[in-house]
Amino acid sequence: MEALDKIRKLQPDLIFLDINMPGKNGFELLADLDTSPQVVFVTAYDEYAVKAFETNALDYLLKPVRAERLKKSVDSIRTAMLEHPKSNVAQGQDSNEKLRPDSQVFLKDGDNFYFVRLSEIFLFESEDNYVRVHFSNNRPLHRKSLNSLEEKLPRELFFRANRQQIFNLSFITNIEPFFHGSLRVTLQGGIRVEISVRRASEFKEKLSL
User: Fold this and answer.
1) Within its chain, how far is the Cα of 187 from the centroid?
2) Cα separation of 24 and 187, whole Å?
3) Contact 120, 135 (CB under 8 A)
4) Distance CA 130, CA 142 (A)
5) Strands 158-160 and 165-168, bridge-based pairing
6) CB of 146 within 8 A of CB of 164?
7) Can you tell me the mean pLDDT for 14-32?
8) CATH 3.40.50.2300: which residues of the chain?
9) What pLDDT sits at residue 11?
């Protein structure tokens, strides 16, 4: 809980994160953040290595950490950050700031964990009180409501099509008229989303149709 508080306040570019900790484990900590810093996992349990890299962690250090191994990790990360300045710094959940297209979010669905850039997500779909997140071939369930998520999403990239769906405008491949003044958009991969009559005029204005 102390780590969560400090990450939200200090907004670090990079954290070295243990996995087994009191209260929450490292993966659960990341799941509680709206958007995550870059992560190097540090733990005594190598059984977590595969899971850590499934989340796109920058590195994985096994305890006891050798000085030369730590130096190698820090040097490679510093080089990478200098070559590609990082813009997806963690934002506090308590702030009113919106996420950015290049924000990196962490998703936990059962025993599966994912790091994904917001711009790579093409559809958010309401499922009971949670949200199904669509990116690549993955469909994890995110334990937040669609309404709370909408407040954080960048409006230049995402559009609320109806009560159940928010989609990524950059993934549109086709737009066509649908029933009674509604519209239907087709996203990359063939997924179709209906834009309600109430939202259709706003959508047309947004795209200057």
Assistant:
1) 19
2) 37
3) yes
4) 6
5) antiparallel
6) yes
7) 86
8) 2-83
9) 87
Taking CB atoms within 8 Å and a gap of at least 24, the contacts of 48-52 are: 48/19, 51/27, 51/111, 51/113, 52/19
The side-by-side arrangement of strands in the sheet containing 172-177 is 172-177, 183-187, 192-195
Separation between Cα atoms, residue 36 and residue 182, nearest integer Å: 37
Tell me if 34 sits within 8 A of 99, measured CB to CB: yes
CA distance 85 to 79: 10
Instruction: Please check whether the domain covering 2-83 is classified as CATH 3.40.50.2300.
Output: yes
Structural fold of domain 111-206:
OB fold (Dihydrolipoamide Acetyltransferase, E2P) (2.40.50)
What's the pTM value of the predicted model, to 2 decimals? 0.69
Calculate the CA 125 to chain-centre distance. 14
Q: Which two tokens stand for residue 209?
A: 């149709």
What residues does CATH 2.40.50.1020 cover in the chain? Answer: 111-206
| Confidence class for position 113, pLDDT limits 50, 70, 90 | confident
Residue 48 φ then ψ, to 5°:
-85, -5
Q: Which residue has the tokens 């963690």?
A: 90
Locate 19 and state its tokens. Answer: 């996995």
Nearest-angstrom CA–CA distance, 85 and 62: 27
Task: Report how far residue 128's alpha carbon sits from residue 146's, in angstroms, rounded to the nearest whole number.
Answer: 10
User: Of 115, 86, 88, 83, which is closest to residue 101 (Cα–Cα)?
Assistant: 88
Residue found under tokens 């250090």: 61
